[in-house]
Amino acid sequence: MTAPAVSPARPTSQNAPLLEVRDLNAFYGQSHVLHGVNLHVRPGEVVSLIGRNGAGKTTTLKSIMGVLRSRTGQITFDGQDLTRLPSNRVAARGLAWVPEERAILSSLTVRENLELPPARPGGWNLERAYEAFPVLRERGHHPGSKLSGGEQQMLAIVRVLRSGPKLLLLDEPSEGLAPVIVQRIGDMLAELRREGLSVILVEQNLKFATRLADRHYVFVDGQVVDEVRADEVEARRADLLRYLSV
Amino acid sequence: MNTQLLLIQVFNGLVNGAFYALLSLGLAVIFGMLRIVNFMHGALYMLGAFTAFALGQAFGLGFWPSLILAPIIVALLGMVLERTLLSRLYGLDPSYNLLLTFGLTLLTQDLVKQVMLSQYAVSSAPYTPPAALAGVVNLGFVVFPKYRLFVIALSLVLCLLTWFVIEKTRVGAIIRASTENPGVTRAFGIDVGKWVTGVFGVGVGLAGLAGVLAAPIYSVEPYMGSELIITTFAVVVIGGLGSILGSVVTGFAVGVLAAVGAAIYPPIANTLVFILMALVLLVRPSGLFGLPEGTR
């Protein structure tokens, strides 16, 4: 790799959050699903959102990305207010979202999928994507839907890196995948983290989340009820498991 | 029936098919991306023919410049209508869009009728084909008007070009992605709304172009699109709503079948297309080339 190693430190102060979410409320039709969520991500930081199904983790990602528009509160990224922006303009500011269903487009080939997001400075080119996951080169001309679940997840992640995001919103990347694939995806995320990419990771797999994240926000019923730093995880493992158990 | 008559009917059918193909292709492209059926399509086809006529009257423009300009004018008008009116109905029940585009059809037809009567004192006007395409070509087995061969050829080229752009280019990849999953495509940083407007413009531009092509054959009059569009909708149903390949193949095939059928048994001329449609609906409700809803 020719790019020099980038340290997590950025020109902005280490303490100024890259993303700040304040009093976020979100709605699906009549139902009120997020109740005043507050969270922040500092530059180069990986935070996880953990909690049971339906606790509001995915909704939080969609609200930040502007995919879900019926929401109130304030979302600030890099000093700019994102709250009123449509998702295409949120993406242009440097956020990228990998949805839980991965959203590999079946009417596009693997290569067309990879090249769909607009290329921006600092983004991954085709070569780098192929280097990270050679299978994507071999399958380049296949329809996106013909990939295995693990390959789809890899494609979904490297696809959005084409736009060189500063913050990656990842929704359950380990879900339904074989341990060896989960390991590889974890390796890649660790590598991206070393290069200074900030990540919000939605996970139910505690082992995967604790391997990568600096902090964990615990979601219950559309609210953040607890915040656990990586160095507290061992001591509070029982609490975390209780939050996650069904 | 002798072979020569049959061949003439096949060629006449291909000419009709060229119009069905261009119109149903536009409908298919629009339906794919906007999920709306554009009932205004026939009126915009007529508007293409009328614009060519009016450009000739007002500026002395001939066929060739009008063949370029009139579709662009129709496309721009379509894009304005999409932005100002159609876009407000997305996500609502499709019948709202039907009412809107049907109303716009009536409005367009009557406006053109008024303009033709008041400005040019005609209810229908002939349109001269270009000198280069006047006369006939001897194909060996049959003599056929040069202009009609040109219509078949240009329609084929445009259908092929549209298919190529949609299936093989980056623009096409964006259109396919926006069709399949607009939400995630937008989240990649692509302004899907702008592409929707552009695709609508191209779709109705094809209708406008078909109108210009039709003017020398059928002459220009305010209701020239209404009958054609009914057959075109039957073609769209037979081919499968939203299928690019389906609309082109079915357009030409229906044109030929209807013309040959009419030669064999004249009373069936006007109903053959609808008999075909009924049969296809019985056997394959989603059309010959369509995927059942939900499997896209």
TrEMBL record, chain A:
Residues 19-246 form the ABC transporter domain. Pfam families: ABC_tran. InterPro entries: AAA+_ATPase (IPR003593), ABC_transporter-like_ATP-bd (IPR003439), ABC_transporter-like_CS (IPR017871), BCAA_Transport_ATP-bd_LivF (IPR052156), P-loop_NTPase (IPR027417). SUPFAM superfamilies: P-loop containing nucleoside triphosphate hydrolases. One of its GO terms (biological process) is L-amino acid transport. It comes from the Bacteria. GO terms for molecular function: ATP binding; ATP hydrolysis activity; branched-chain amino acid transmembrane transporter activity. Keywords: Amino-acid transport, ATP-binding, Nucleotide-binding, Transport. Belongs to the ABC transporter superfamily. PANTHER family: HIGH-AFFINITY BRANCHED-CHAIN AMINO ACID TRANSPORT ATP-BINDING PROTEIN LIVF (PTHR43820). This is ABC transporter. It comes from Deinococcus phoenicis.
Automatic annotation (TrEMBL), chain B:
Keywords: Amino-acid transport, Cell membrane, Membrane, Transmembrane, Transmembrane helix, Transport. It is a multi-pass membrane protein. It is found in: Cell membrane. It comes from Deinococcus phoenicis. It holds the Pfam family BPD_transp_2. One of its GO terms (cellular component) is plasma membrane. GO terms for biological process: amino acid transport. This is Inner-membrane translocator. GO terms for molecular function: transmembrane transporter activity. Its main location: membrane. Belongs to the binding-protein-dependent transport system permease family. LivHM subfamily. It comes from the Bacteria. The chain crosses the membrane at residues 6-31, 43-61, 67-86, 127-144, 149-166, 195-218, 230-258, 264-283.
